[in-house]
Each structure stands twice: as structure tokens, then as C-alpha cells.
Amino acid sequence: IERPAEARIELDYEDISAQGESTYSPLNYGQKHAVDAILASFAGASDRLFFIDGPGGSGKAYLYNTLYNILDGRRLIDEIVQDNQEDEIHLTTEYLISLTPFGMPPHELYLKDGAIVTLLRNLDITNGLCNGTRLRIQSMGQFTLGCGFVSGLRKGEFVLIPRTDNCCDTKLPFRMRRRQFPVQLAFAITINKSQGQASSKLGLH
Ligand SMILES: Nc1ncnc2c1ncn2[C@@H]1O[C@H](COP(=O)(O)OP(=O)(O)OP(=O)(O)O)[C@@H](O)[C@H]1O
């Protein structure tokens, strides 16, 4: 593990609040209605759960970021700050092994010939090796995986995937590095990952 040089991140809450306000004023009617309802719920005593629904590009992420900045500006969102060097002793190997942050391959990767995997990072975009590319395992070595493209322009072509250092420093309060093949098994994919893929057959669960 590499600890970030600056363990304590100083947040400028006034700046965050100002960002929230600047994106609040251009909100359209529906966005404003949702933001106001969620903000009002903070005054209530009971927990509430909100679902924001709308077509692609209708401004859900914009609304979410506005809300986040307003609430963060009011210091209503928890933050994890690691400012004590002693904290490191709590990060046992077992704990680190158990972590699989989004986009990070698992500590123990169980594969077999013929298994379908999805690539977790952009290795070589011009040659079709991007985050989300689906491959079929053909051979397994200590340092490389021999794979075939499952779909796309290079369907059926052979490619070698190297073992790489995979880093995660955004989702965790510390920086983690794992040396592993940047793939994970993909018996199925989420609807988000499937966007933009041209598949001739599809099974929906
Ligand atoms: N009220 C607004 N004022 C100015 N720009 C906006 C507003 N709402 C949304 N946008 C802009 O419209 C674009 C699409 O919005 P956004 O990404 O939030 O949509 P979305 O509903 O989350 O889309 P998707 O479901 O495809 O992820 C973004 O560039 C965003 O900055």
C-alpha cells in the first residue's frame, strides 16, 4: 500500500457550497422540484429514500452533483480522513485481500479455458483492448493470459493480456495496488456495461 503524501485533505466548504448554488439556479422545473423535495426531507425526523428516474441525458447526474455539493457544503455528508499514521495497523492483509473496489480485479482470480472475461481497464484502445472488452480465455500463464476477442471487429483474434499493477485511490481512504490480470469473469454484464456493444443475441435477466 502506498499512503497518499497528503493524508488529510482540507475541504473548502464555502467553495463547495458556492458550486452547489451556481448549479442550483439553472435547474429546470423537474430538477428543482426533486432537489427541493430531497433537501426538505433533511428537516424531517425519519429517513427517506428517493429514486430519480428520467431518460438518458435529462440531467440526473447534474441534479445529483448539485445536491451533493449543497449537502456537502452544509457538512451533511460523512468523510473519511486518515490523519493518524497508527491507522495503518488496522489494514490487515486479510482485510486488503477481501476488498475488491469497482474496477479492480479480485485478489484471487479463478479462471479456466473457455471462460468469458471482461477487461477492467484500457490497455490498448486503438487495438480494441478497452475497459469492458469481452475476451475468451484460451491459455493461462504466470505472466500472461492468452485470450480471443468475443465480439467486435477483432472477433476471434488472439491477444495476450499481461499481469499489471492495478491501482485504486479514489474509492478508498488509502491507495491500494494489486498485481493481477486486469480481468474479471463475465458470465453476465450489467445494462450499463452493455451500452454501445453490438451483440447478435441477448439474454435478459
Ligand atoms: N439544468 C441544467 N443546466 C445546464 N446544463 C444541464 C442541466 N441539466 C443537465 N445539464 C447538462 O446536460 C447534460 C446531460 O445531463 P446529465 O449527464 O446530468 O444527464 P443524465 O440524466 O445523468 O444522463 P444519463 O442517464 O445518460 O447518464 C450534461 O452535460 C449536463 O451538464
From TrEMBL:
Its EC number is 5.6.2.3. The keyword DNA damage applies. Keywords: ATP-binding, DNA damage, DNA recombination, DNA repair, Helicase, Hydrolase, Nucleotide-binding. Pfam families: PIF1, Pif1_2B_dom. InterPro entries: DNA_helicase_pif1-like_DEAD, P-loop_NTPase, Pif1-like_2B_dom. One of its GO terms (molecular function) is ATP binding. It comes from the Eukaryota. Residues 94-138 form the DNA helicase Pif1-like 2B domain. Its cofactor is Mg(2+). It catalyses: ATP + H2O = ADP + phosphate + H(+). Residues 27-75 form the DNA helicase Pif1-like DEAD-box helicase domain. One of its GO terms (biological process) is DNA repair. The keyword Transmembrane helix does not apply. Belongs to the helicase family. This is ATP-dependent DNA helicase. It comes from Galendromus occidentalis.
